[in-house]
Amino acid sequence: MPTIETEEHRSLRQAVSALGKRHGRAYDREQLWSEAAKLGYLGVNLPEAYGGGGGGIAELSIVLEELGAAGAPLLMMIVSPAICGTVIARFGTESQKRDWLPALADGTRTMAFGITEPDAGSNSHRISTTARRDGADWLLTGRKVFVSGVDIADATLVVGRTEDSRTGRLKPCLFIVPRDAPGFGRRHIEMELNAQEKQFELTLDDVRLPAEALVGDEDAGLLQLFAGLNPERIMTAAFAIGMGRYALSQAITYAKDRTVWNTPIGAHQAIAHPLAQAHIDLELARLMMQKAAYLYDEGDDVAAGEAANMAKYAAGEACVKAVDQAVHTLGGNGLTREFGIASLITAARVARIAPVSREMILNYVSHQTLGLPKSY
Ligand SMILES: Cc1cc2nc3c(=O)[nH]c(=O)nc-3n(C[C@H](O)[C@H](O)[C@H](O)COP(=O)(O)OP(=O)(O)OC[C@H]3O[C@@H](n4cnc5c(N)ncnc54)[C@H](O)[C@@H]3O)c2cc1C
């Protein structure tokens, strides 16, 4: 694994950063989405044969990190090209690939992803959204919660389980559910987040889907699901690192200028050192993210799983600390609407909770890496 970023990756970073800065914090999500797509950034990880850039999650994570660092993150990148695009590219039928991948890459269509359920939460083994056969069709019934961007997505990739595997270990199966499918309802959840994407509670009431809606094998087990969840974790790390960098850059600019004694506040070590620490933590998190992306793109799903969890953990923590320190650095202005930093406090917490919480990653590392016994 290269420890220094390649020339190609550096140029991609610079180009995306320039795009992000042109849009800035007051970005229009839709406009940026279509511009990024036209420049080939949204589908950079998707296969060339289906309109993508032929790269991997390493490249896609650079795109999201740089947009975030410019204050213009595109949350749906975590879902549409990273989870849904990857799963379809790896396990979809030829017609699903032709139908979806070019459209996800050129930004004309978007796909949301729904796994979280109100009664299962962090314990995905408890999900109860159930698919049963009806002739050649499937009928899908269940509830999902906190699913992002369902209103702007043409379809949602819903994780369910087949009827005969309702109990015991999860055998997930994935269905493409069009936004307007009869029986597919959504309720907007009001969040205390200053984000352009909304979250929804979903109800699936005997949603009739053709056989072609099933992505991959109904018996493939967790492998197919994690093919999408590992990119999701890596991309959430990119989202968090981008946001942390954005907050830090605002704080640095402010600290260089603001003078209340006879030197700028950035000269006081009580202000400078925590900013330096935040920078180091973000850099370290990025290294782990790059390792995870490298392993994933090399096809080592197992090693990528561990690294993706660690990267998401490190990035979430680094982001929360960077945002907290940025707000503090701005003093009263840290809480004004004009400077727009305080609203990042709740946004930063998302990376600690979703798509898998800090505690569940610590559980994973305790059990899988360290071999410690489980409490649950
Ligand atoms: C902004 C946002 C966007 C989201 N977008 C999506 C989306 O697009 N699609 C989707 O499917 N989901 C989405 N989610 C849902 C997200 O993945 C879940 O919120 C997350 O997985 C946690 O589940 P929960 O909220 O049910 O928390 P719970 O599982 O109820 O956990 C609550 C708390 O208990 C802790 N906890 C639980 N079990 C244990 C344990 N065994 N040991 C120690 N601590 C434990 C958790 O760490 C957490 O702190 C989104 C969430 C947010 C906030």
CATH architecture heading of the largest domain: Up-down Bundle
Structural class assignment: alpha+beta
- pLDDT < 50 stretches: none
**Tally of helical runs:** 10
Write down the Rg: 21 Å
Protein name: Pimeloyl-CoA dehydrogenase, small subunit
Cofactor: FAD
Organism: Streptomyces sviceus (strain ATCC 29083 / DSM 924 / JCM 4929 / NBRC 13980 / NCIMB 11184 / NRRL 5439 / UC 5370)
Keywords: FAD, Flavoprotein, Oxidoreductase
Structure, explained:
One of its GO terms (cellular component) is cytoplasm. Belongs to the acyl-CoA dehydrogenase family. Keywords: FAD, Flavoprotein, Oxidoreductase. The chain is of the alpha+beta class and 376 residues long. 48% of the residues lie in helices and 15% in strands. The chain has ten helices and eight strands. A hairpin with a 2-residue loop joins β2 and β3 (137-148). The protein is globular, with a radius of gyration of 21 Å. Bound molecules: flavin-adenine dinucleotide (FAD). Flavin-adenine dinucleotide binds next to β1, β3, α9 and α10. The site of flavin-adenine dinucleotide has 21 residues, from β1, β3, α9 and α10.
Supply the key terms.
single chain, 376 residues, alpha+beta, Butyryl-Coa Dehydrogenase, subunit A, domain 1, Butyryl-CoA Dehydrogenase, subunit A, domain 2, Butyryl-CoA Dehydrogenase, subunit A, domain 3, 3 domains, eight-stranded mixed beta sheet, 10 helices, binds flavin-adenine dinucleotide
